[in-house]
Amino acid sequence: MKKVNLYTELKNGIIIIAIGKYSNLIIQFIILGILSRLLTPDDFGIVAIINVFLVFFSMLIDLGIGPAIIQNKTLTEQQINRIFTFTVLLSILLSVLFGTIARPIALFYDNEDLVEVFILMSLALFTSGINMVPQSILLKKKKFIGVNIAQVLSNIIYGVVGTVLAFNGFSYFAIVIATIVKNLVLFLIIFKQANIKLAKSIKLSDLKVIYSFSKNQFLFNLINYFSRNLDNILIGKFMSAKDLAYYDKAYTLSLYPNQILTNVITPVIQPIMSEYESQTNIIKETYLLVAKILAFVGMPLTVFLFMTSKEVIYIMFGFQWTGSIATFQILSLSIWIQMILSSTGSIFQSTNRTDLLLLSGILSSILNISSIIVGIWTGKIEYVAVVLVISFSINFIQANYLLMRKVFQTKQLEFYKVLIDPIIISIIVFVPLIIINMFLGEYSLAILIITKSIISLVMFLVGIKVTGNMNLIFKIIRVRKGNIQ
Predict the structure, then answer these.
(1) Dihedral (CA of 217, 222, 225, 226) sign
(2) What is the tens place of the pLDDT at every residue in 293-347?
(3) Given 304, 425, 438, 447, which is the most exposed site by the fewest CB atoms within 10 A?
(4) Residue 139 to residue 146: CA distance in whole angstroms
(5) Domain residues of the chain, as ranges?
(6) What is the pTM of this model?
(7) In angstroms, rounded to a whole number, what is the distance separating the alpha carbons of residues 197 and 180?
């Protein structure tokens, strides 16, 4: 009965998160489509360079504290207030430091336009940093609806501000200013719900309570940062801002399926599964179920996006983004891999094995960084994409080895069995799309994307039926008594 309640809680949490995430994604798609037509690839290239460093400093502010707060069940209200105060002070310090490195970064990239943008973006860093603890508190309390409302409202305001400024010629400043406003709105909403306040003092002992968990999480984030952002740093340096914009747009688009599915599931997994920390068998069954669902959706979606890369780029961003098509097509091959791989972090956290999460991050980073350097050496963003897909594939294997063998003490084959039916379904979807490309390639973008979408959906449902997995749909909709296989 306890397991049934667990799956019911997971399902309800995922539904609530999904409503908010999908609302946000629709808003983001609309905003991105508008801004991609109002701003140039060079404008987006400038912002992409800044974002690389913004993400790094945001990670320094986080220090793994957010997930540690969620995982720890002994923190008192006073301790949380002092931890929050620490993150606010840290946000101020690092935001000032962020602004001071503007000139050296501009010299590194030989681009004076970066100076003013960097200084202004330091405000975005501060407003982002102060959101971390309040949002973690809401997730810890499973107040998913409150988080959703805050994110949707802040994204709407971001879109309105960004569009108005871009339309009035603010160039890349439109994105920066809109980001600052968005973070402020988000903070004002979630701070009140979190019911926390600034403390008069900070105690080192409060930070020590979460240190063992947060240090491994932070080190993983640090290592993962370089493996995930070195490509942007080097492309911006050794190629051009336009090349970086094309690459960043393709890479960002390839991550959207993660935001649509994995990012709906993973925010729910740790807050709920952390209560079953010692019951690894329950966590294992949950992971296999999540991986199975992600594979059923991710693999056919990978096929679909690979076969519709041109239509997707043109419809989403406009014809000025032709340079992103080939790169997106290559990166789309890793979509299903990244979807499942992204869910593993929450499982490591839920079992309190951030030490293995750190090990997995180190192995991933070594391979990713080596691959990126090789790709940059070739001088083409398409080759960077190729080596990254290879790297993601190998990392997929090692991460699941650590989970299945080291955490769950079982055979890897148990995991790979869940991929068999999704592979069959993907082949069923792939065949008619090849035929369409051969005979309908000259039709308009709208006709092609609609035709491919309808046929892919039909063949997906046929595949589900042929492989005997219709019951999986019903298991997602409702939780039956007993084990979920």
Answers:
(1) negative
(2) 889 888 999 999 999 999 889 888 888 888 899 999 999 999 999 888 887 877 7
(3) 438
(4) 9
(5) 39-202, 212-485
(6) 0.67
(7) 22
Closest CA to 189 of 142, 155, 160: 155
Distances (CA, A) of 348 to 71, 356, 418: 11, 7, 20
Count of alpha carbons within 13 Å of 401, Cβ hemisphere only? 10
Gap between the Cα atoms of 294 and 297, Å rounded: 5
HSE, CB side, 13 Å, CA atoms: give it for residue 50: 30
Would you say 339 and 258 are in contact if contact means Cβ atoms under 8 Å apart? yes
Place of tokens 């499942």: 340
CA dist., res. 262 & res. 14, Å (int) = 10
Kindly tell me the burial class for residue 142, based on how many C-beta atoms sit within 10 Å of its own C-beta (0-12, 13-18, 19 or more): middle
Are residues 237 and 64 in contact, defined by beta-carbon separation less than 8 angstroms?
no
Contact 449, 312 (CB under 8 A): yes
Task: Quote the tokens at residue 130.
Answer: 């102060």
Q: Which amino acid is at 240?
A: S
CA-based nearest residue to 342, from 248, 229, 264 = 264
C-beta separation of 6 from 282 below 8 A: yes
Triad 262, 267, 273: Cα angle to 5°: 105
Alpha carbon distance 70, 31 (integer Å): 32
Percentage of the chain beyond pLDDT 90 is 16
Joined tokens for residue 343: 């869910």
Residue 41 tokens read as: 């690839």
Q: C-alpha dihedral over 270, 272, 273, 276, to 10 degrees?
A: 140
Confidence band, pLDDT 50/70/90 cuts, at residue 10: low
Sorted by sequence, the CB contacts under 8 Å of residue 431 that are 6+ apart come out as: 459
Q: What is the CA 303 to chain-centroid distance, rounded?
A: 20
Amino acid letter at 236?
G
Give the tokens for residue 365: 């980073």
pLDDT tens for 113-167 read: 888 888 888 898 898 888 888 888 887 777 777 777 888 888 889 889 999 998 8
Q: What is the largest CA-CA distance in the chain?
A: 71
